[in-house]
Amino acid sequence: MKTNILFPSQHGFQSGHSPYMSLLSMQDRISSAIDKNEYSLSIFFDLAKAFDTVNHNILLSKLENYGIRGTQLKWFTSYLDRRQQCVENNGKRSTLKSIQYGVPQGSNLGPLLFLLYINDLPNVSNHLFFILFADDTNVFYSHNCINTLFQIVNVELNLIAEWFQANRLSLNLEKTNYILFRSHKKSIPPAQLELKINTASLAAVDSTKF
Question: How many CA atoms lie within 13 A of 105 on its CB side?
Answer without folding.
Answer: 10
